[in-house]
Amino acid sequence: MAEYDQKHWWYRARREVLAALIERMVNPPKGAHILEIGCGTGHNLPMLGQFGNVEALELDEQARSIAEGRLGRSVMSAPLPELAGVPEGSFDLVGAFDVIEHIDDDQAAIASIAKLLKPGGRFIMTVPAHQWMWSAHDVVNHHKRRYSKRRLKKLIEASPLKLERVGYFNSLLFPVAVAERLSSKLRGKEDVDLKLPPAALNAALEKSFAAERHLIARLPLPPGLSLFAVASAT
Predict the structure, then answer these.
(1) What is the pTM of this model?
(2) What is the pLDDT of residues 14-41, one digit of tens each?
(3) What DSSP assignment string belongs to 61-125?
């Protein structure tokens, strides 16, 4: 992740899409207190820093060390759903980007995250979509599930949070991804390694995915590789 997160089209474009989503759906107050749960190597932290003062949480020791170097201060380590030691009622925005699918009890995880928010604070999460897209990639990355739009809505609606928006993204490249996934399964050769494509292809894929920043939270996108949800604390 640390090797590719500043170069690979998926990381670069997703940050642009997430920034547009935050700007349109949250528009945090000046000096907002922001937390990213499961920050990995910290590649989202500069983007989140555009919207306020950022704190982060990461369990993996090696990734956390890299994230601390990027953030310039310590990164918390507390597993979901307990989140022991993370101050409750403190955050204007909490993000969990491709995290909740790793948690056995996703309902308990959302309930714990709700406690971290200030009244009116927002929670933004992203998860992989479509259980029928399950592949070796999910196994290697220790996913517990992929989500349907209906399942994600029910997860939030059963929590203390108020659901504001659920939608797909990474939609423009979805047909290509489906074709590649089906082809790999038929050949019995599923590639689970993250690789940097040739420069021209990497740029084209980034441009295609990043174009969704103009549409996210403005128009409903067709089915895509990922889902997002935005919810607020009451």
Answers:
(1) 0.94
(2) 999 999 999 999 989 999 999 999 999 9
(3) HHHHHHHHHHHTS--B---TTT-TTPPTT-EEEEEEES-GGG-S-HHHHHHHHHHHEEEEEEEEE
